[in-house]
């Protein structure tokens, strides 16, 4: 049986090692699920040849 | 000085009045302190007012003036700064109980530079906790928008927007990770600039996402913004990512006009189904102004921009959770509930998702640079709606659809410039039918701040919006 979004967040938080108060679980779960769902839309993009960078060099200007 | 209503002067007018001895630096500081005392109890724009320090600095400025010394560009200008900038010997809270007693032992580079440029530090300004936005229970009070006290002044440099709109400082330094300077600019009818990412040092500025955070000049006029940018820009060995490019005089071409300038309306933002009709009309009116000034206006397409809000949050919040990891582990209950749950959710994002967002950011930059090959300046709304009520921004999320609608949508307007490291400015662009400010956002190529400021100044001088005064700060 798949985990509920709240249980998934509890399990991830346990693995990451951050405490989440019981009253915050629902809110954290909504935020997390929404973010993951939005970013899953990126799966449709062809990003294979792209190198991620943190700072664009001056010469790219 | 009879005839001068000092707090209503721009920074440029203020320093000119001081240089010509129409008014003294002490008079200027006192007039602002009086106004802060009278109005800020209801507006909550300041966390710390540096009363004695400002008066002492003003007395030194008076002596410098009488001694005939060379006067720097912001001489005598009372500035207040977001409480994210570290200030030597002065409380720096980041609007968080976690930092409630934090007093740095040095000035951030940006603060040192505005002081070197002659500005007088008037105080430290309220903000969203840790520069995140959405704070539900602000520890130093809710910053109130002087255009309507129930409306948000924008996030997260909220105090900067409020203090400028209410004439409680002459100029400000905010900070802009994904729109935190431009958003309050738009919401409060003032100017907010996000410079090219490497243009201004972040040394001594409490970080959230170190490769998006940017010091943001905020001001009453575009000319003031150019003055403040000139003061803070340039290489800093303490922030090795700052560019070694020379810093131009950003005021020198302000009045050159926009004849022949190519302005590109970003189609995907302007035609979004959920943009407020008043905002849409204001942007179309702004484009007509540009046409009337001789600019060429056309549409450009940036297909990935509708995803920018999610890409931005996927990167910046994940980085922010790392930046504040120690707080998340040991002091999370000292955080505001909204900051806490947002950081906790971000701390759980898998690396593969973060990595895709980082790649998508590069693709977005390519699309921006292609668009900026067709035009000189990009245009859109700064926020897709007029300032909403405080309560609509801080309510708990009941489901994932609410997160999408409230959290990602508006960030798609401002965050693309953070994702792409490009400069962007928000300028007053009119008012909604309900009398609330609307911001016009302009963006440009890397290091093209002169073009951006010239376009913004031309529009500002052709419109009355920046001269309007808010009803709650007369």
Task: Summarize the topology.
The complex is a heterodimer of chains A (61) and B (474).
Chain A: H1 5-16, H2 25-40
Chain B: H1 11-19, H2 25-43, E1 46-49, H3 51-67, E2 78-82, H4 109-116, E3 120-125, H5 158-165, E4 171-175, H6 182-188, E5 191-194, E6 215-219, H7 222-232, E7 262-266, H8 267-270, H9 277-292, E8 296-300, H10 308-323, H11 325-330, H12 337-347, H13 351-374, E9 377-381, H14 390-394, H15 400-408, H16 411-420, E10 424-431, E11 437-443, H17 449-462
Parallel strand pairs in B: 2-3, 2-4, 7-8, 7-9
Antiparallel strand pairs in B: 1-3, 4-6, 5-6, 5-10, 9-11, 10-11
Helix pairs in contact in B: 2-3, 5-6, 7-17, 10-12, 10-13, 10-16
Structural overview:
The complex is a heterodimer of chains A (61) and B (474). With 61 residues, chain A is an all-alpha fold. Helices cover 46% and strands 0% of the residues of chain A. Chain A is built from two helices and no strands. Chain A is elongated, with a radius of gyration of 17 Å. In chain A, 26% of the residues are buried. The mean pLDDT of chain A is 90. With 474 residues, chain B is of the alpha/beta class. Chain B has a single domain, classed as Amidase signature (AS) enzymes. Chain B contains 17 helices and eleven strands. In chain B, helix 2 runs antiparallel to helix 3, helix 7 packs antiparallel against helix 17 and helix 10 packs across helix 12. The longest helix of chain B has 24 residues. Chain B is globular and about 60 Å long. The two termini of chain B are 19 Å apart. At the A-B interface, helix 1 and helix 2 of A face helix 10, helix 12, helix 13 and helix 15 of B.
> Can you summarize the main beta sheet of chain A?
none
End-to-end distance of chain A: 52 Å
Largest sheet of chain B: 11 strands, mixed
Structural class of chain B: alpha/beta
């Amino acid at each position: 049986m798949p985990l509920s979004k709240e249980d998934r967040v509890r399990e991830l938080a346990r693995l990451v090692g951050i405490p989440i108060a019981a009253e915050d679980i629902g809110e954290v779960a909504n935020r997390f699920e929404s973010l993951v769902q939005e970013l899953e839309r990126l799966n449709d993009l062809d990003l294979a040849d792209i190198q991620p960078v943190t700072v664009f060099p001056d010469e790219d200007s | 000085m009879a005839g001068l209503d000092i707090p209503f002067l721009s920074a440029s007018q203020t320093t000119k009045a001081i240089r010509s001895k129409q008014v003294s630096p002490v008079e200027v500081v006192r007039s602002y302190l009086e106004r802060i005392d009278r109005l800020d109890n209801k507006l909550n724009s300041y966390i710390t007012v540096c009363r004695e320090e400002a008066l002492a600095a003003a007395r030194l400025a008076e002596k410098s003036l009488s001694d005939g010394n060379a006067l720097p560009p912001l001489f005598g200008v009372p500035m207040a700064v977001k409480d994210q900038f570290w200030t030597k010997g002065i409380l720096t809270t980041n609007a968080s109980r976690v930092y409630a007693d934090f007093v740095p032992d040095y000035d951030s580079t940006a603060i040192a530079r505005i002081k070197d440029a002659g500005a007088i530090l008037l105080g430290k300004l309220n903000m969203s906790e840790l520069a995140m936005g959405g704070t539900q229970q602000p520890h130093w009070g809710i910053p109130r928008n002087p255009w309507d006290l129930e409306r948000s002044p924008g996030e997260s440099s909220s105090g900067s927007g409020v203090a400028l709109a209410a004439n409680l400082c002459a100029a400000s330094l905010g900070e802009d990770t994904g729109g935190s300077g431009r958003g309050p600019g738009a919401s409060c009818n003032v100017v907010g600039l996000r410079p090219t990412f490497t243009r201004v040092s972040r040394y001594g500025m409490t970080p959230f996402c170190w490769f998006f955070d940017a010091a943001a000049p905020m001001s009453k006029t575009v000319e003031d913004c150019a003055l403040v940018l000139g003061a803070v820009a340039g290489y800093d060995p303490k922030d090795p990512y700052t560019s070694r490019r020379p810093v131009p005089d950003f005021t020198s071409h302000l009045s050159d006009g926009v004849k022949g300038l190519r302005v590109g309306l970003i189609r995907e933002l302007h035609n979004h189904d959920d943009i407020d009709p008043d905002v849409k009309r204001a942007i179309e009116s702004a484009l007509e102004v540009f046409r009337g000034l001789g600019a060429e206006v056309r549409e450009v397409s940036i297909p990935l921009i509708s995803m920018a809000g999610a890409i931005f949050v996927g990167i910046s919040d994940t980085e922010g959770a790392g930046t504040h990891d120690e707080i998340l582990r040991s002091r999370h209950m000292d955080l505001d509930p909204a900051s806490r749950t947002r950081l906790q959710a971000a701390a759980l994002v898998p690396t593969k998702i973060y990595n895709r967002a980082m790649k998508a950011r590069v693709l977005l930059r390519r699309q921006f640079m292609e668009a900026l090959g067709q035009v000189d300046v990009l245009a859109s709304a700064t926020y897709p709606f007029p300032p909403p009520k405080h309560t609509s921004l801080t309510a708990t999320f009941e489901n994932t659809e609410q997160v999408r609608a409230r959290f990602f949508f508006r960030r798609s307007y401002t965050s693309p410039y953070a994702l792409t490291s490009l400069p962007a400015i928000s300028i007053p662009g009119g008012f909604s039918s309900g009398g609330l400010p609307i911001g016009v956002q302009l963006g440009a190529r890397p290091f093209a701040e002169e073009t951006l400021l010239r376009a913004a100044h031309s529009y500002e001088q052709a419109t009355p919006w920046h001269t309007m005064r808010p009803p709650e700060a007369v």
